[in-house]
Amino acid sequence: xxxxxxxxxxxxxxxxxxxxxxxxxxxxxxxxxxxxxxxxxxxxxxxxxxxxxxxxxxxxxxxxxxxxxxxxxxxxxxxxxxxxxxxxxxxxxxxxxxxxxxxxxxxxxxxxxxxxxxxxxxxxxxxxxxxxxxxxxxxxxxxxxxxxxxxxxxxxxxxxxxxxxxxxxxxxxxxxxxxxxxxxxxxxxxxxxxxxxxxxxxxxxxxxxxxxxxxxxxxxxxxxxxxxxxxxxxxxxxxxxxxxxxxxxxxxxxxxxxxxxxxxxxxxxxxxxxxxxxxxxxxxxxxxxxxxxxxxxxxxxxxxxxxxxxxxxxxxxxxxxxxxxxxxxxxxxxxxxxxxxxxxxxxxxxxxxxxxxxxxxxxxxxxxxxxxxxxxxxxxxxxxxxxxxxxxxxxxxxxxxxxxxxxxxxxxxxxxxxxxxxxxxxxxxxxxxxxxxxxxxxxxxxxxxxxxxxxxxxxxxxxxxxxxxxxxxxxxxxxxxxxxxxxxxxxxxxxxxxxxxxxxxxxxxxxxxxxxxxxxxxxxxxxxxxxxxxxxxxxxxxx
Length: 543
Known about the structure:
The protein is an alpha+beta fold. The protein has helices at about 10-20, 25-35, 40-50, 50-65, 70-75, 100-105, 120-130, 145-165, 175-185, 250-255, 260-265, 400-405, 455-460, and strands at about 5-10, 65-70, 190-195, 205-210, 215-225, 235-250, 270-280, 285-295, 300-310, 315-320, 325-335, 345-355, 355-365, 370-380, 385-395, 410-425, 435-450, 465, 465-480, 485-495, 495-505, 510-520, 520-530, 535-540.
């Protein structure tokens, strides 16, 4: 077969390419696909890689009428082939042409497409050969099936649903939401904004929520995540409610324990109630950085609030009681957020919270190598704040306790005793500075710093510095904003005994003591005055 011939597909060939089952033989289909009307036979052989197979296959495809040579397509029907140059015309055997017009004797026909000029065929074939490498085989466009239509319909429905959710006028339902929340909390509720958010999860968001006419509780945002069946079932189920930026005043602490009773929820079932960034305001001081959740029982409603601080050192539980809210707190390595800043190794507090009043019946703290137990009442209101309590302490490290109280540690030893505490101030934050305490103490196996009683009994002039070790040191204790008074002081150190009293006010010491030194030869007894400052006391012998 001539390598310069160019074939193209007939309409039957185009149909055979589209119908994959029409040509079973692989060679026929392969060659039919690469025939594009531009590549000549030589180019087709190069593409297929088997010259003999291409020759045989092209001949068979041409016989089947699936391809056609461009020369055959351009030749007009009935047009005679070129006269061979070897044919000789013999004079006399050709009759002269008649004068009758040919058009009158023969039927007309459309002029055939002229063949390419002889001089342009070589250039044209080269041009077609160059384009054959770039021409892509035309393939039929895929038909859109039923699954694609279904998927498109679903996507369109989802898009319309999202637009409907975003453009829904939620603000029109804000009064209904405020009315339901007011009934659930048994208090007046105002909502600043109502809408839908999709991050971090799809939810209904309430913003700038205020509880109470005086605003004793507020929340920056409340995110509600309902169950998928929320709109269809008679029982409305809410999977999670996340409340962030909660602020509670003194009045709001007790009222929060009475929120969400079972009869106020109606046909709504709550799952988890999560609290984040809770701050409890006590006037001039506050407890910040709390988080936790509300535990809700389907039959009883709100069971308790469970909160913890940011460091995880303090846990607080608030449960509704019959007449007051029940408070339970436990801490580990917890430091009080107010002055004096005391560090508790362990702490347990249980009590009752009512309107402006907290009565704790159990107070058990482990701190400074010892233990403190007690009970008391903390009250606050328009008239101010007040505290009354009784404490019993055992084996406290006296020097560490005095250092925590910002007092120079003038004594060491294990301190035990009882204290009565009272305080009254315009606000809760001022109670620590207004504490009045009275009681007795007993310190065992310690050291009295900067006072040397044994040296003072022998000296004739005032002395400073030194130390006195003792087995037992006890006395009465009273302190208020004016100073500290130590009465009925008794000290035992080996053969030495001492008694006296002292007052510390404004950093100055004033007092007296009687020291007795016993021995085999007799007893030595001397009185002395105590003066100087708390940080540098002075003993003056009295003769």
